[in-house]
UniProtKB/TrEMBL annotation:
The gene is Dere\GG19005. Belongs to the phosphorylase b kinase regulatory chain family. Its main location: membrane. It is found in: Cell membrane. This is Phosphorylase b kinase regulatory subunit. It comes from Drosophila erecta. Phosphorylase b kinase catalyzes the phosphorylation of serine in certain substrates, including troponin I. The alpha chain may bind calmodulin. Coiled coil: none annotated. Pathway: Glycan biosynthesis; glycogen metabolism. One of its GO terms (biological process) is glycogen metabolic process. Keywords: Calmodulin-binding, Carbohydrate metabolism, Cell membrane, Glycogen metabolism, Lipoprotein, Membrane, Phosphoprotein, Prenylation. One of its GO terms (cellular component) is phosphorylase kinase complex.
């Protein structure tokens, strides 16, 4: 007999153990492992873990193969691994239809099964009889497949299998937004079959996506066709969500030991060393016991108190499982591996010795890992009294193969047979090490020579698209289209990638395709998307954010490369916008917002950038892998011609402005205005009582009259019907008739803004006599429509066209055929087809309902040459400047040959060259054959594009809503918020608030928002916009959202309007007008200031648009700096408010609207609830039984409390209730009393505190004696009875109490504490007592 070296003998010993305990159970036909001798089901997850020991042992043999029999053993072990992995692959490939379906539906019933028959690999339970959707199991399979392939095993044999695995990558790529049943197959821990987002699934998916990226499944023998492609952004989204969740596992499980496999072997999914440390510590401190770790708190599985006859638990019984949960030795195996990878020998030895004490010896002396340890039935009482004191007994399988396999791996590492690198050939374990700084490369390309020359004037030298050849520059949508060919397979019936989203990480690489190289511009720069894209300042702001994001998120080889194309459409009056020039100079300097950047040309960066090969575009299935797929070929040919050729956006015709003599007036003025619902004026924000939402109306700022709708919905100031409309000349300024939907063009340049202002005020007081015809009236004759359309042609004012079209939509519907004659149609359609305008492609839902969006007035007085009768002073006053800009702006339908913009000398601004002013309908790109109808919708589209171009944001928002446009990334934005455990509500509280708790498809979201705001499409549009900004902030600055669980967009809109009205010192209606007219960039800015609580002022920029500026003064300044004076230096109107007054009220209002709470607030409320029978808030009672169902740190509990608090419509009152709850938590935390008694009515405490406050105010003659502390006479009592306080305080609480600081002898906390002492029976009324509340 040959002698073996010591190591060989030891390995042979492990080989015998592996054979006896693991391989002996492997089914010879399928290669799968049954769950036990009596259960033939094979779980994907358990099978993969079982085979790890076999794989580890094979690599150990490979190292010492000094004898032939060792090589043979190594090969046998490797082939067992291949057999198992292929067995699982076959089982999953049998369900290929599910993979295809799941890409679309993401429904639990369409998911791959979690377990199969070990005999034949077929399904063993029905789709709906088991929690099959377990993303972590499929992800674990892909991760280990990648690692084994990288270690040299050949598991995948054919290109069809490669396509299937590519589709499995699509199956898991949205893991960050798919609630599943998780590693324990339970979903919510009550086991009622509700899936939830699980951090362990997301982490495993992230690891699998990263491991699979650019992996050749045929190993060293493969070619381009066998490579798997992953879009880097998908993995990064999983990472971002994972980081926001840890150490929490899910909504119902505040902690889970299963996270050990995510922060350590096998996933290594977390890059942040501190977060790994915190998560491990949390698990050890709360879940570790003598016999291993508990899976999660209140886990009833196999405990003596569990009722084995039913699968689910009653919610109240969860409390019984506290402290007697089973402990699993499996987690000691994970901890040994975790510390072995960190090469912490001492910890490895400590856990190894702990594990040995609890392992079970078999008859032949082998150590076995049992499944779990439970408290014996008769010792449960003692264990409750003193957790951890009783000896436990083994329950479940023994050996537990999952644990046994990891135990053997740990042993092989401890004894030096394996190095950690061999178990991790892809080096995932190095992810948490510090990376060098990323340098972001930026390339700016000009659309044509003209723009290049304009940039050169500013000493910025760039190339044009033509000059960067042979590199081709394409928009992101081309890349997203090319990626849909990835993973297509006719034989298997697989359709490739479904998601159309390509993020900044994907567009920051170069792509090679045969001998061509492509660069792609980022998705946010794609102008065909949504109106947000027409705001240059916002685009620059997003660019800065993305560069910053690349700095932290980039982890590919090479440097990221951001390519931007500067186009005609970005120009502002034919000049390059200042903001762009400044940004380019910053980029040139090498640093922007703390990120290192390099500005250069594409060819300079060829060698330093990441390059990906788009090899999957070959037509492999037809046997021509070297030829492009024919569809791709045609797509590219068509697209390359179109994508960046200069397309005109607007058709300008010669000719002078029409004389404005004959104007007919109709009764559709203010149609837009009537749809609004933002409510600011009532001081109790959102408290309108029962009136339905749609009846809240707004009238305008010192109102641009075209927006002036009166409170009654059917009265219009100017409702002359066409028959009796007198004629008037534009110079006849005294004539009342001019005060109509447009501002008069003012030839007298001398009138000051103040005069004009007083005229507007007079106008507002015009007697409202003429009643508009009721919409539903039957004699609504065709003539009226004809009149309207005639007017539509004549008017040059976009706002007025908006009102006419709004009226047509309300009465006739969007698809009404306007029957315009051909010449006019050509004009309009030419303008429409002028192409590429913002939002052209943003899905127009074919809705018939009258959907509307608020007009934005971003005022570009400067766009209009003075020669056309614009008053230069107008720029001074925002409302008047708005008017002039509009009065000369382009109209949708003018008779065949009038100029659609003020004069042709702006033609460059509208990027048309003069020779294109023809009527050739070939230019309309086939949009209109002879005689095709023109609907109201077509006219609206034209109006929308012009408004975008002229930056009339109010009108843009309004028309976008009428067209049913939706923000392209709306669903994505909402998902970004939800997966970071923030719920979103839309609609105005209290009656119309809808909560979104799970990701919804785009169409349903749009419908939900539409329902929430009724007819008010402008606010609906604004809501979509704000959701996108909130999602941007939560991605880049998650700290803004700490201690906020629900984002109530309706309340945020009201608070934004309220803040504007405070800073501008104007009334609510004016403020909401201003709000709806902010440019997208300023809107985002204002939202940022409100979220961060920073003080801001509003200043008026040159053109009268408002701009939000941070106040950086050392003292928190309350002054609003509004420059409304004109350029000649008329004194700027500055409103000063007493600095201190209103500060606390405002702060409470902001915190209440944002639902901000103090740290650990919810878990502290839990302790209060334990000591009383319930807490009543605004009619909702939080029962004590909630503490039975949920643990203090559980997200579900926090949401229960949040739901109760959200019943309170007024934000500042809500905040006082939160303060009252905090005082109660102090009472319980200092153990002043053993119990707080029955149900506590929290509002009683607040009202009692208010009463005490008013008594004190009377004694010291404080401010409140002017309102609530006055001695009441009859009239005031009557007023109080009708629900209004003199000072306008919400919910019958004096405004002055809201405005008191929390601390101090007259602070709210003092009164709350006194109220608690008076109201609660349990607090002793007499005698000395130690006061612990400081």
């Amino acid at each position: 007999m040959r002698s073996r070296s010591n190591s060989g003998v030891r390995l042979d010993y492990y080989q015998r153990i592996v054979h006896r305990l693991i391989l002996a159970h492997q089914e010879p036909v399928t290669g799968l492992f049954p769950a036990s001798n009596v259960n033939s089901h094979a779980w994907i997850r358990d099978n993969v873990y079982c085979i790890l020991a076999v794989w580890g042992l094979s690599m150990a043999y490979k190292k010492i193969a000094d004898q032939d029999e060792d090589r043979a053993k190594c090969y046998e072990l490797e082939q067992s691994c291949v057999k198992l992995m292929r067995g699982l692959l076959m089982a999953m490939m049998n369900q290929k239809d599910k993979v295809e379906k799941f890409k679309m539906t993401q429904s639990p019933y369409d998911s791959l099964h979690a377990k199969y028959s070990s005999k034949n690999g077929l399904p063993v339970v029905g789709d709906n009889e088991w929690g099959h959707l377990q993303i972590d199991a499929v992800s674990l399979y892909l991760l280990i497949l990648a690692q084994m392939t990288a270690s040299g095993l050949q598991i995948v044999f054919s290109l069809d299998e490669v396509s299937f695995i590519q589709n499995l990558v699509f199956y898991i790529e949205s893991a960050y937004s798919i609630p599943d049943y998780g590693i324990w197959e339970r979903g919510d821990k009550t086991n009622h079959g509700e899936p939830e987002l699980n951090a362990s699934s997301i982490g495993m998916a992230k690891a699998a996506l990263e491991a699979m990226n650019e992996l050749d499944l045929f190993g060293a023998r493969g070619g381009p066709a066998s490579v798997i492609h992953v879009l880097a952004d998908e993995a990064h989204k999983c990472q971002a969500v994972l980081q926001s969740m840890l150490p929490r596992e899910s909504n119902s499980k505040e902690l889970d030991s299963g996270l050990l496999c995510v922060i350590g072997f096998p996933a290594f999914a977390v890059d942040d060393a501190q977060l790994i440390h915190n998560t491990k510590d949390a698990i050890l401190s709360r879940l570790q016991g003598k016999y291993g770790c508990k899976r999660f708190l209140r886990d009833g599985y196999r405990t003596p108190k569990e009722d084995p006859s039913r699968l689910y638990y009653e919610r109240w019984e969860l409390r019984m499982f506290e402290n007697i949960e089973c402990e699993w030795p499996l987690f000691y195996c994970y901890l040994i591996l975790f510390h072995a990878f960190q090469s912490d020998k001492r910890a490895v030895e400590e856990y190894a010795s702990r594990l040995e004490k609890i392992m079970v010896r078999s008859e032949d002396g082998i150590l076995l890992v049992p499944e779990s340890y439970a408290v014996p039935q008769d010792l449960v009482g003692f264990e409750y009294q003193k957790p951890g004191s009783q000896t436990r007994e083994v329950v479940g399988r023994c050996p537990f193969l999952w644990g046994q396999s990891l135990f053997i791996l740990g042993r092989l590492l401890q004894e030096g047979f394996l190095a950690v690198g061999e178990l991790d050939p892809l080096n995932r374990r190095l992810g948490a090490q510090k990376k060098p700084d990323v340098v972001v490369q930026v390339v700016i390309i000009a659309e044509d020579n003209e723009i290049r020359d304009k940039l050169a004037e500013h000493d910025l030298h760039v190339q044009t698209i033509a000059e960067v050849a042979p590199i081709e520059v394409q928009p992101a949508r081309v890349l997203s289209h090319l990626y849909t060919y990835l993973g297509r397979n006719r034989k298997l019936g697989l359709s490739g990638r479904k998601s159309r989203d390509v993020g900044i990480l994907s567009t920051s690489k170069l792509y090679s395709l045969k001998d061509r190289i492509f660069a792609f511009t980022p998705q946010f720069a794609d102008l065909s998307r949504f109106y947000i894209a027409s705001d240059n300042e916002l685009m620059i702001d997003i660019l800065k954010g993305e560069i910053n994001f690349l700095k932290s998120a980039w982890d590919l080889l090479g440097r990221p490369l951001v390519t931007l194309v500067l186009k005609r459409i970005h120009l502002d009056q034919d000049k390059i916008p200042l903001a762009m020039i400044q940004t380019m100079r910053k980029l040139k300097s090498g640093y922007i917002n703390g990120t290192r950047v390099m500005l250069g040309s594409l060819k300079d960066f060829l060698n330093t950038s990441a390059i990906t090969d788009l090899s999957f575009l070959g037509s492999t299935e037809d046997g021509y892998p070297d030829r492009l797929h024919p569809d791709v070929q045609t797509y590219l040919d068509e697209h390359l011609l179109r994508s960046f050729s200069n397309r005109s956006t607007m058709n300008l015709r010669g000719g002078q402005l029409r004389p404005r003599t004959l104007r007919r007036r109709m009764s559709c003025k203010g149609a837009i205005k009537k749809t609004r619902s933002i409510n600011v004026d009532s001081d109790n924000l959102g408290m309108e009582g029962p009136s339905p939402l749609t009846e809240r109306r707004l009238s305008s700022i010192v109102p641009p009259p075209w927006l002036q709708a009166n409170k009654q919905s059917h009265v219009s100031v100017f409702a002359t019907t066409p028959e009796e409309g007198p004629t008037s000349s534009p110079l006849n300024l005294g004539n009342e008739l001019i005060r109509e939907n447009i501002y008069p063009v003012d030839p007298h340049h001398s009138r000051s803004a103040i005069d004009r202002r007083s005229e507007f005020v007079r106008q507002q007081e015009m007697p409202k006599i003429l009643i508009q015809r009721h919409r539903a009236e039957t004699n609504f004759a065709d003539t009226e429509v004809e009149e309207l359309i005639a007017m539509l042609r004549e008017t040059e004012n976009l706002e007025e066209q908006g009102d006419i079209l709004q009226y047509l939509v309300d009465t006739q519907g969007l698809d009404f055929n306007t029957e315009l004659e051909q010449a006019f149609v050509d004009d309009v359609v030419l303008e429409l087809a002028g192409g590429g305008g913002a939002g052209a492609g943003a899905g127009d839902g074919a809705k018939k309902s009258p959907t509307i969006v608020l007009p934005t007035v971003i005022i570009e007085a400067a766009t209009i040459p003075a020669g056309t009768g614009t008053d230069p002073d107008n720029a001074a006053h925002p409302s008047s400047a708005t008017a002039t800009a509009n009065s000369n702006s382009n109209c949708v339908g003018n008779t065949s040959n009038t100029s659609s913009s003020s004069s042709s000398n702006i033609s460059n601004h509208n990027n048309m060259s003069p020779h294109e002013n023809n009527h050739d309908s070939s230019q309309s790109e086939g949009m209109l054959e002879e005689g095709r109808v023109v609907t109201v919708r077509d006219l609206l589209k034209g109006l929308y594009e012009k408004a975008c171009q002229q930056k009339l944001w109010g009108l843009v928002r309004h028309t976008a809503g009428m067209l049913g446009k939706r923000v392209e990334d709306l669903a994505k934005a909402v998902t970004d918020l939800l997966v970071r455990q923030k719920q979103v509500t839309v609609g105005m509280p209290p009656n119309n608030e809808y909560t979104i708790t799970a990701p919804l498809p785009e169409v349903e979201l749009r419908q939900l928002i539409h329902d929430a705001y009724g007819d008010d499409e402008s606010t609906a549009m604004l809501t979509q916009e704000l959701m996108v900004y909130l999602a941007m902030f939560i991605r880049t600055e998650p700290q803004l959202f700490h201690e906020m669980l629900r984002l109530r967009v309706g309340l945020i809109i009201q608070v934004m309007a309220k803040e504007l009205s405070r800073t501008l010192n104007c009334d609510g209606e004016e403020a909401s007008e201003h709000l709806l007219n902010l440019s997208p960039f300023e809107m985002k800015n204002l939202l940022y200031h409100i979220l961060s609580g920073k003080e801001f002022a509003v200043s008026s920029v040159a053109r009268g648009n408002l701009s939000i500026v941070s106040c950086k003064s050392s003292r928190v300044s309350k002054k609003s700096q509004i420059g409304l004076g004109d350029p000649e230096g008329e004194d700027a109107l500055i409103a000063t408010i007493d600095d201190r007054q209103g500060q606390w009220l405002r702060r409470r209002r902001l915190d209440g609207a944002l639902n901000r709470v103090p740290r650990d607030f919810y878990s502290r409320v839990w302790t209060v609830l334990e000591k009383c029978q319930g807490l009543a808030i605004e009619g909702r009672v939080l029962q004590q039984s909630l503490t039975q169902e949920m643990t203090p740190g559980e997200l579900k509990f926090a949401l229960e409390v949040e739901t109760a608090l959200n019943q309170i419509p007024q934000p500042e009152y809500r905040q006082l209730v939160v303060e009252a709850l905090m005082v109660l938590t102090l009472v319980t935390e200092h153990n002043m009393v053993p119990s707080l008694g029955g149900i506590i009515y929290v509002e009683h405490l607040v009202h009692k505190a208010n009463q005490l406050f008013l008594e004190d105010q009377r004694k010291v003659q404080g401010d409140a004696t002017l309102c609530c502390a006055k001695i009441k006479d009859g009239k005031e009592q009557q007023q109080a009875a009708s629900g209004m306080l003199l000072c306008g305080g919400a919910a019958y609480i004096c405004q002055h109490l809201y405005d008191s600081a929390p601390s101090g002898s007259y602070g709210t906390m003092t009164y709350m504490s006194r109220a608690v002492a008076l109201v609660l029976d349990c607090v002793p009324k007499h005698g000395e007592m130690e006061c612990a509340i400081s």
